[in-house]
Design a protein that fits this description.
- 2 copies of one chain form a homodimer.
- Chain A is α/β, with parallel strands linked by helices.
- Chain A has a 7-stranded parallel β-sheet with strand order 4-3-2-1-5-6-7, sandwiched between helices. Chain A has a 4-stranded mixed β-sheet with strand order 9-8-10-11, covered by helices on one side.
- In chain A, α14 runs antiparallel to α15.
- The first copy, chain A, is globular and about 55 Å long.
Chain lengths: ~400, ~400
């Protein structure tokens, strides 16, 4: 029963906050040794003051003075992108939780892997953009990639039985018995909205998620179903299954977090309330389960769980993601980057809700995918897609 | 990938039929080497003729001539209770599936264990009456007890992750991470029937089960919830958890077959359509999963899954079973025996539906439980309870 020493990249975001809750709940099993944030110096300092983490990193160097002023103790302080990679490879850490929104988590994640740290992945971009590289590096460095997304964590739990065949060095799950991976999706706020009303959807409406409380980018992604599309690609890499074996089922109650259907026709599902503390804790304490103060399901109040087929025609994100996943190479990174730009443009009222899909599809259509790209090629494709998407936005917002 | 050589005790019953379907579906993994039935000689012969099982047993010796006449080949034939024990301990068998209704499966099950055969248990009586003895004998003989009840099979699947800590000899599951075992119950045909209408329930009404097609005894048990009560006690022995950690949730759709809640508040569930072929196959092929022709869940047609708290006051079977399970010793055998008599009396229109509970409770109240009984003491308590229950029935049917 080892206490895990964890570095949190993205400590001031919503995943970071949940990770702190977990650390408070199971102090005997989780110790925070490093905290990194992008630019919220005050919040980072407050979190550091509470946890007394010996290492702290603020990427935005212009705010480092605020951090120093607000700290009530003397941690070692890193800054900038280089600092992020330094705190991700601390000798004193066992695990790095990557919860940075956007592409910023990619380099520190790879640095952590090279330093032999287990990775708890909350940033979708890491596996969507560079799943092939990340999983290969993890294998070669004998490092574990533990999923923190509630969906992938659920799948990971349903595959617990495959642990016996795990090679501790390579951390390979045996998925030969898996027929389908079934990702559940809440369906977002427009699950039942007619297609004809999509044009008039406002950012305010799209930011009201029915079951999860998350950051704005991921909340819009839940509304467009791009979130689920990105997760299809993540699942492909995490569990080494082809994208065509990854399916999506709409489950508005967000109690079943995902399922695995085996070759014998039987299905295992993981259930809990919608609280990121569940998957974060499991990633930290795996393979153990540790008692905590989180409420278990109360079946007398649960009433009903519903399941529906997604409206593929009306929400094109799933088919775009399937295409990106099947093509592979640089296309998933391009899809992800174009989506980031389109979401920002929608929140900025430059494009309408359904135009998020149009922008992504247009940029994907323009891209010639490179197979088995290296990190530079991926980042280049990412930048290219951002420029292309900006061009599309400009055209649409006229 | 070894082909398992299986003996089926109770080959002409509904579980036996499903087992034959499984053997037809995965012939490379399951070979039927022995078939035993109580008295349906014609059906046993037909099944033998199809499977060409080299060993056949008919308990009812008066019908052995019909069997011989109808057989189209020359298997070795056993008969009587002694024959049942002989076929349960064949050198040529790896596993014995015990699917005999009532107490008749107990001695052959113990004989199979002593002969080192893995046990696939479908007969509830074996673990309800003699769970302590059966599990101890299994441990001492290095034999596996695999559950075939859909509920316990589901729990077994949810505990797959505990396999890594399995000692192949003792087959002990590590349940230290388990907080609760949650048995699902369809609720039977009277799930929503008001208590005041119970007196007028007819056998015909009680035999109409909403989701499962089973024998008449078990169908009545599903209506009274004694079936679930017996399963609570089975779970206690199979998974070595106290009865107080075994709970029941009503789930009318019979898609979630049972669940395990872990100490971290997370729950795993096993789902499939209601077909006994699923759990039978898993018991046979475990720890492998083998492709078959069974239909996986179609989530587009599943629609909704509901969960309710049982009506404990109106269906006293659950509380009686909890009491029997917590007291232990001979009390579960007494509850089981009294219930068998009461169900037969109800089907025979001698007692009314709610009087099944009254008879069982009355006999349980009269019993002084013996702790850690041996098999003779259990069978004696069983016989005593039958006599007492008959007395109650006589009184009520006047």
């Amino acid at each position: 029963m080892k206490r895990k020493r964890v570095v949190i990249l993205g400590a001031t975001g919503s995943i970071g906050e949940s990770a702190l809750k977990v650390a408070r709940d199971i102090p005997g099993r989780m110790q925070i040794v490093g905290l990194a944030a992008n630019s919220n110096a005050e919040k980072l300092a407050a979190t550091a003051n509470e946890t007394r983490a010996p290492f702290v990193c603020l990427v935005n160097e212009t705010k480092i003075d605020i951090l120093r002023r607000t700290l009530e103790y003397k941690p070692r302080i890193f800054s900038g992108d280089a600092g992020l990679c330094e705190i991700a490879s601390l000798t004193d850490a066992d695990m790095v939780l990557v919860a940075i929104v956007g592409t910023g988590g990619l380099r520190p994640a790879l640095t952590a892997i090279e330093a032999g740290k287990d990775l708890a992945v909350a940033s979708k971009e890491i596996l969507v953009m560079a799943g092939e590289i990340v999983m290969r590096e993890a294998r070669e460095n004998g490092v574990r990639v533990l999923p923190v997304d509630s969906e992938h964590n659920a799948i990971f739990q349903c595959l617990e039985g495959k642990r016996s065949t795990l090679n501790a060095e390579s951390f390979t799950l045996d998925v030969s018995d898996v027929r389908r991976i079934i990702l559940t999706a809440s369906g977002g706020p427009f699950r039942e909205t007619p297609r004809k009303d999509f044009d008039s959807i406002t950012p305010e409406q799209a930011l009201k998620h029915p079951t999860w409380n998350m950051g704005s980018k991921i909340t819009i992604d839940s509304a467009t179903l791009f979130n689920k599309g990105l997760e299809m690609i993540e699942a492909r890499w995490l569990f080494d299954v082809e994208t065509k074996r990854v399916e999506v089922v709409i489950h508005p109650q967000s109690i079943v977090h995902s399922m695995v259907e085996f070759t014998d026709g039987s299905t295992l599902a993981q259930l809990s309330y919608s609280d990121m503390c569940f998957p974060i804790q499991y990633a930290v304490t795996w393979p153990d389960r540790v008692p905590n103060t989180l409420p278990p399901l109360d079946f007398s109040k649960l009433s009903k769980l519903e399941f529906f087929t997604p409206r593929y025609e009306d929400f094109p994100a799933l088919n775009l993601a399937r295409r990106a996943g099947e093509t592979g190479g640089t296309l998933p990174a391009v899809m992800n980057a174009a989506n980031e730009i389109a979401v920002a443009a929608f929140l900025d009222r430059q494009v309408r809700f359904p135009e998020i899909w149009h922008v992504v599809e247009e940029v994907m259509n323009r891209h010639t995918a490179i197979a088995h790209p290296n990190l530079d090629a991926i980042l280049e494709a990412d930048q290219w897609a951002r420029n292309e998407a900006q061009g599309c936005v400009k055209l649409l917002s006229r």
